[in-house]
Amino acid sequence: MKSIFTITLLCLLAMNARSELPLETYGQLTLDTLPQHTLLINTFSHNAVLFNADTQQMLGTISTGIGANAFEVDRKKGIVHTAETYLSRHTRGQRTDVISTYDIRTLSPIGEITIAPKHPSGSPMRHYTGIVKDTEAELMLVANITPAMSVSVVDLQSRTFLSEIPTAGCGLVYPSEKLSFLQLCGDGRAQLVTLNRKGEELSRVRSEIFFDLETDPLMEKPARSEAGWVFNTFHGKVFQVTTEAGKIKISLVFNVGEDDEGWRIGGMQPVAFHVPSQLLLLLMHQGGENTHKDPGTEVWYINLATGATTHRLSLAVPANSIQVSQDESALLYAGSIAEDQVQIYDLKTTVSRGTISDIGLPTILQNL
Amino acid sequence: MRWTLLLLTLLSLTLLCAFAAADPRSHYMIHCMGCHLNDGRGLPPEVPAFDNKLAILAASDKGREYLVTVPGASQSLIDDAALAGVLNWILATYTEEPVYQPFLESEISRYRYTPLANPARLRDELLGAAD
């Protein structure tokens, strides 16, 4: 009896409140100025979500076809590009692969370029695409695996699909100087391919063998430093791969972890680099053989020049991916799939600056 | 009882290892079948079906070099002798005509470590030339 009375009262209150609500209209919101710390998060829910990391407020989403790939960000032009796959009947039918370009202000697609329907879209991965450029040309590269490996080359200025470069035995793309890109090969070497502005191959060279696939494989998830790319092996060797005048230079920088406590580098996006402080950030966990995809419980701060570990940050919850903003008052992000959240820390003070939750299973984290 | 169990486990493991190490078919299953599939049909045109074209390819030096340097073969995690064994097994299993010149370990070593840039183009050239 009492509850019926309460419900009636609530309904009356609600009706009353409703009559006073202003009329809502729909329209399009625009992001006229991007917050200082804007984080673009790929998810397992076939989209990417944009957050203001300072307020943890959600800014919008971009749908990314049947899979999800990382983004090529052009902040100057205010656009992002991503490689997408579409099937005409959603889960079957005619397959079309495109590079879609989105306006960051509206998050609406403003163009697409059809590419060979060969690009992989499984678990999101930063190095399926890359942009190379010189003073005149800007080419977007998309790695293909069918399982034959090749790279599609797209001219972003004329917005045309230029070519497909066969790269047998070598995969992924790591942009390098001008119109050249690095790849990793199944024989333990890196490969450098140089293109001309028409997307034709000018040269290709392979490095010496620098990792052993069986005893200590290289992870394909490096971070870009100023000089080149910082890779690591399962057992914690850290290499810097650079190029100079068409040659590949590989230097072993240092070893990390694998001490008595068995700390290893691992995760889905386990390495980040903060350019202003030259800090290498590594997502670390304790584990044995074959734990290279396990979530990390700590982020180690390492001086790239000396190899010295300057700090070990304990994460509140284990994370699969890390990223860092590239400003002086940088934020360190740690994404957790199991907890569906991204933890935010002040890089310098290591103090927690909040959590972004209910994302849709965060995978690759990128700065906008 | 516990010892017998341990002994049996060890014995079967040893047998399994010996079997896997020696048998080209097992190498095929572990290192090649993921892409070439259980009956060699592959996924044409990207992964060519294993058929009588292999015999044409294996009949010339250039063709033999091609068969060894496709990355699935050259970059596989088996040694030269084992790779020779798998390639011979593939030829014996999927071609109609017997191939009279089996691959030797030395032939594998000679070709294997020079990377092949564009397998599809070389294949077209080789098979076009053989027609």
Q: What's the overall geometry of chain A?
A: globular
Taking all Cα atoms into account, the compactness measure Rg of chain B is 17 Å
CATH class of the largest domain in chain A: Mainly Beta
Q: What is the total number of structural domains of chain A?
A: 2
Helix content of chain A: under 10%
* Secondary-structure-derived class of chain B: mainly alpha
Q: Could you say what the CATH architecture of chain B is?
A: Orthogonal Bundle
Commentary on this structure:
The complex is a heterodimer of chains A (368) and B (131). Chain A is mainly β and 368 residues long. Chain A has 2 domains: 30-63 and 260-368, YVTN repeat-like/Quinoprotein amine dehydrogenase (Methylamine Dehydrogenase, Chain H), CATH 2.130.10; 64-216, Methylamine Dehydrogenase, Chain H. Chain A contains 1 helix and 29 strands. Chain A has one helix at 2-20; strands at residues 38-43, 47-52, 57-63, 72-74, 79-87, 95-103, 109-115, 129-133, 138-145, 149-155, 160-166, 170-175, 180-185, 190-195, 201-206, 223-224, 229-232, 237-244, 247-255, 263-265, 271-274, 279-286, 296-303, 309-319, 321-324, 331-336, 341-346, 352-357, 362-367. In chain A, strands 20, 21, 22, 23 and 24 form a 5-stranded antiparallel sheet that branches. A 4-stranded antiparallel sheet of chain A has the order 3-2-1-29, with no helix packed on it. Chain A is globular and about 75 Å long. The model of chain A has no long low-confidence stretch (mean pLDDT 93). Chain B is mainly α. Chain B has a single domain, classed as Cytochrome c-like domain (Cytochrome Bc1 Complex, Chain D, domain 2), CATH 1.10.760. Chain B has helices at 2-22, 24-36, 53-57, 61-69, 71-74, 80-94, 105-112, 119-130. Classes of the chains: A mainly beta (368), B mainly alpha (131).
List keywords for this structure.
heterodimer; A: 368 residues; mainly beta; Methylamine Dehydrogenase, Chain H; five-stranded antiparallel beta sheet; 1 helix; globular; B: 131 residues; mainly alpha; Cytochrome Bc1 Complex, Chain D, domain 2
